[in-house]
Design goal:
Layout: H1 8-31, H2 37-63, E1 77-81, H3 87-103, E2 106-113, E3 116-123, H4 134-142, E4 146-148, E5 169-175, E6 179-185, H5 193-213
Antiparallel strand pairs: 1-3, 2-3, 2-6, 4-5, 5-6
Helix pairs in contact: 1-2, 3-5
Length: 214
């Protein structure tokens, strides 16, 4: 279910107040049989104030950032690690995935390395197996991350069937040339540049650990 924008009322308040003020001034002018100088000055001031409020409301509509529409991802929460991993690798994967889930907008993540799934954590998709599609293959080949800011607009989204079906945004971060860290968010356009840098740093550390121990 989509969460309402918490700033919607605040952004619209100047528009409503300014419009209401302008309407009341017009009614007052129409119902006044004889206009005095003081009323005329008051009307001018009221029109200016109403115009300023309306202009402020229009500016706020454009300038104030709206919170991305978030959804509740479909799936059960879980933490699945490959059983045949060294203890040091399990510890590193658990640490890294915890940081990503608690410090970024990530709600679901998968680590795919050397042709197998090492970890699934957060809200789990219905499919446990990862079959690399065109996007993941490109990340592995070029070793460059891919950020799909709004997954629902990409035809290639069908390859991410191992994430919750209503995942809104996806980052595929390379783990060297042998694996990919796949992150799913519950809102489109929700990863910031700082998040991307943070994810890249953790992925680099994971890549070193995995290369040394697997």
């Amino acid at each position: 279910m989509t969460k309402p924008d918490p700033n919607r009322v605040l952004r619209r308040l100047p528009l409503v107040v300014g419009g209401l003020g302008a309407v009341l001034l017009l009614i007052n002018r129409l119902l006044t049989p004889q206009l005095t100088d003081s009323q005329a000055r008051g009307d001018v001031l009221g029109v200016i104030l109403s115009a300023v409020l309306i202009l402020t409301g229009l500016i706020w509509q454009q300038v104030q950032p709206r919170s991305p529409d978030a959804v509740e991802l479909i799936g059960e929460e879980g933490f699945v690690l490959a059983e045949d991993l060294p203890t040091a690798v399990k510890t590193e994967l658990a640490w890294a995935s915890h940081l990503l889930l608690t410090n970024t907008v990530t709600r679901s993540l998968v680590i795919y390395y050397q042709g197998k799934v090492l970890l699934r954590r957060g809200i789990l998709g219905s499919q446990a197996e990862v079959i690399p599609g065109a996007i993941v293959k490109r990340v592995l080949e070029k070793q460059q991350p891919v950020y799909l800011v709004a997954l629902y607009v990409y035809p290639g989204r069908i390859e991410f069937d191992y994430l919750p079906e209503n995942t809104q945004g996806v980052i595929c971060q390379p783990l060297g040339n042998q694996g990919v860290l796949i992150l799913g968010a519950n809102a489109p356009r929700s990863y910031t540049k700082q998040d991307e840098n943070w994810i890249a740093g953790i992925a680099d550390k994971l890549a070193v650990t995995l290369q040394e121990n697997l």
